[in-house]
């Protein structure tokens, strides 16, 4: 284990191309190319690729590399470096946003699909097929990809603006507190000195009057300080208003951008309204009674002996059911005005009666001729 780690560190110290080691050249820097992730030193890159694209000098690797693609390694593990590169590239293309999907479920499915694609590319499964899919998607959805990239950039910049404003606000607050403290200290000092000089120069009878006056001066000064505080508070409020305006602006822009994304957004068309629960009675509530409320007990000479009679109850007889049926029957028909319904029915009949009359006459005529 320890020897393994040691040998790997030694290997890292030596350029696999020119075999020069960091021991001899402490300033040596290693670069990688995302084409094959073979590591080599900076001077080798300069030497081999300065005159244009060339094959990777590492034995067994025939990838064509360009100098401008070489960069410093971010992660120590080359595997991690490669995965991060792949992830960045795939996320750049498959950058659909949650609000573009009908449901959370659909968005989750999309995220899972994206992870599958990344995993395939990382572990070199179906690379050609997956790459072809990605290219096809990128070509077909160029507009939405651009729109989403713009939204992302906008979000990042508005976040930056908000941070700056918050910092400015905090700075103003700190400044105000410091100023307040400073002014107060200076005023107290000045007031005290003034008071002492007046006392020293004046006669002893004036002492009370001078003290009163000094107190008044201090009061005046503190009111002036209050107005200063008020001014700072207003400044901060204005800043906050500005802040709010910026955040509003960004939401409006986001909505607009999302709309343009929707034009090409194949998956999300419109979020359906949540369905109301099915009502088989069309608003009629089965147990609702408008004219009475069912009690659990009504005194009755006839029913009272039955109430606790085992012979009756054993058969399943329930007095509550009896009450419910009796009351329903007693109140059934209230608010149903039969007279009105008949006159309405007659009115409806007269309007159609001409047709029926004609039909009956025709029938009669037919009978006569027969
Ligand atoms: Zn080298
Ligand atoms: Zn290579």
Give a topology summary.
Layout: H1 2-13, E1 30-32, E2 40-41, H2 42-49, E3 54-55, E4 64-65, E5 71-72, H3 78-93, H4 104-122, H5 127-140, H6 142-201, H7 207-264, H8 304-307, H9 310-314, H10 319-331, H11 338-369
Antiparallel strand pairs: 1-2, 1-5, 3-4
The chain binds zinc ion (2 copies).
InterPro entries: MAT1/Tfb3, MAT1_centre, Znf_RING, Znf_RING/FYVE/PHD, Znf_RING_CS
Subcellular location: Nucleus
Main location: nucleus
Query: Strand tally, please?
Result: 5
In which order are the strands of the major sheet placed? Answer: 2-1-5
- Measured between the Cα atoms of the first and last residue, the distance is 117 Å
Largest beta sheet, briefly?
A: 3 strands, antiparallel
> How many helices does DSSP assign?
11
Beta-strand residue fraction: under 5%
- Give the overall form: flat
What ions, cofactors and ligands are bound?
Answer: zinc ion
Biased composition (Polar residues): 346-357
Pfam family, one: zf-C3HC4_5
Region (Disordered): 344-370
Protein name: RNA polymerase II transcription factor B subunit 3
Notable traits:
3-stranded antiparallel β-sheet; two-stranded antiparallel sheet; Herpes Virus-1; about 375 residues; disordered C terminus; mainly alpha; flat; binds zinc ion; single chain
Short structural summary:
Among the domains are: 1-73, Herpes Virus-1; 145-264. Helix content is 65%, strand content 3%.
């Amino acid at each position: 284990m320890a020897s393994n780690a040691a040998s790997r560190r030694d290997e890292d110290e030596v350029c696999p191309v020119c075999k020069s080691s960091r021991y001899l050249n402490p300033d040596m820097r290693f670069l990688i190319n995302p084409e094959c992730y073979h590591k080599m030193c900076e001077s080798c890159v300069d030497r081999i690729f300065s005159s244009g694209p060339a094959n990777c000098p590492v034995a067994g690797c025939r990838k064509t590399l360009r100098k401008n693609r070489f960069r410093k390694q971010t992660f120590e593990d080359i595997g991690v470096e490669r995965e991060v590169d792949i992830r960045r590239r795939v996320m750049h293309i498959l950058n659909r946003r949650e609000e573009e999907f009908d449901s959370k479920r659909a968005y989750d499915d999309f995220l899972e699909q994206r992870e599958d694609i990344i995993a395939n590319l990382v572990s070199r499964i179906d690379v050609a097929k997956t790459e072809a899919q990605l290219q096809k998607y990128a070509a077909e959805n160029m507009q939405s990809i651009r729109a989403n990239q713009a939204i992302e950039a906008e979000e990042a910049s508005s976040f930056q603006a908000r941070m700056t404003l918050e910092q400015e606000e905090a700075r103003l607050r700190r400044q105000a507190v410091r100023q307040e403290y400073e002014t107060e200290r200076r005023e107290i000092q000045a007031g005290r000195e003034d008071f002492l000089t007046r006392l020293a120069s004046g006669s002893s009878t004036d002492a009370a009057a001078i003290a009163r006056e000094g107190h008044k001066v201090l009061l005046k000064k503190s009111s002036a300080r209050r107005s200063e505080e008020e001014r700072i508070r207003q400044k901060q409020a204005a800043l906050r208003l500005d802040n709010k305006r910026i955040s509003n602006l960004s939401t409006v822009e986001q909505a607009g951008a999302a709309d343009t994304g929707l034009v090409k957004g194949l998956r999300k068309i419109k979020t359906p309204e949540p369905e109301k629960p099915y009502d088989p009675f069309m608003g009629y509530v089965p147990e609702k009674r408008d004219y009475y409320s069912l009690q659990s007990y009504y005194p009755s000479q006839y029913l009272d002996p039955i109430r606790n009679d085992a012979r009756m109850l054993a058969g399943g007889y329930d007095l509550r059911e009896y009450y419910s049926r009796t009351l329903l029957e007693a109140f059934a028909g209230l608010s149903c005005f039969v007279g009105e319904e008949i006159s309405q029915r007659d009115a409806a009949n007269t309007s159609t009666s001409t047709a029926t009359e004609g039909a009956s006459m025709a029938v009669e005529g037919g009978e006569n001729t027969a």
